[in-house]
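Retro notes, item 3 of 5
We never archived the inputs for the glutathione complex last cycle. Fixing that now. Sequence and ligand:
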Amino acid sequence: MTNVIVHQIPSAWGLPTVGPFSLKLEAYLRIVGVPYEVVFDATPFSGPKRKLPWIEHEGKKIGDSGFIIEYLEQRFGCNPNAHLSAGERAVALSMRRLLEENLYWTLVFDRWMVDENWPLTQQTVLGMVPAPVRAFIAPFARRGVRRQLAGHGIGLHTPDEIHAIGVKDIGAVSDLLGDKAFLLGESATEIDAVAYGLLANIMLVPVKSPIKDSALRHRNLVNYVERFRTRYFG
Ligand SMILES: N[C@@H](CCC(=O)N[C@@H](CS)C(=O)NCC(=O)O)C(=O)O
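Structure as it came back at the time:
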C-alpha cells in the first residue's frame, strides 16, 4: 500500500505546519495511525481546490481536509468517531463549524491584517516563496486575504469586535472541554484534530493577539494542547 502524500503549509515556530487545516489533517492521521509523507508547498495553487492541505493517494488528488478525512475513512476503514452518539456527533459538527468557519477567520485576521504580526506571517506562511518574489507578491496576497475577510463578513468589524468574537469562541471550546481529556471524552476523536490544528496555531505561536492571551488563561486548554502534542507529536 502506498503512503498518503500530504501537501501542506510550511513548518515553523516548532509546529509541523503553520496551517490550521494542515495541522488538523496531520493530527487526524496520527490519531488513526495511517502512514503518510509530507510535502511542503510554497503556495496553495497546485491543489485541486487551490487551498492547502491536499493529498495524493493511489493516483487520486483530493482537496479539503473534511473531504480528505471522508476519503481516508472509506479507504482505510478508520473512524475515531465510531463510538459517539448521534447527539455527540451533532455537537462535534457544530464545534467544527465554530472552529473552522468562525474562529479560523479571527486567526487569519491576526496574522494578515495586524501590522505588528505581518512580518512574521510573510516569513512563515509565505516562507517558501523566494525572498525577492515574496516581497513582490506579499501585498497582493494580503489584499486577497482582506477581500476574503470582508466576504466572510468578519472583516467588516473593528479589531476589538473581531477579538471579542474570537474570545467568545475560545470560551465555548474551554467550556465544552471542561475537565475531560479530549473534547468528547477520554479518547481523541476527529473534533480534537480540528481543535488542535487551530488552538496550537493560536496558542503555540509568536503571533500577538488578545485571543491567544485569552486562550492561555484557560488552564484546561493549555493542558489540552500540551496533552495532545505530547501524545501525538511527542
Ligand atoms: N475547507 C478547507 C480550508 C483550507 C484553507 O482555508 N486553507 C488555507 C490555508 S490554512 C489556504 O490554503 N488558503 C489559501 C487561499 O485561500 O488562497 C479545508 O478544510 O481544507
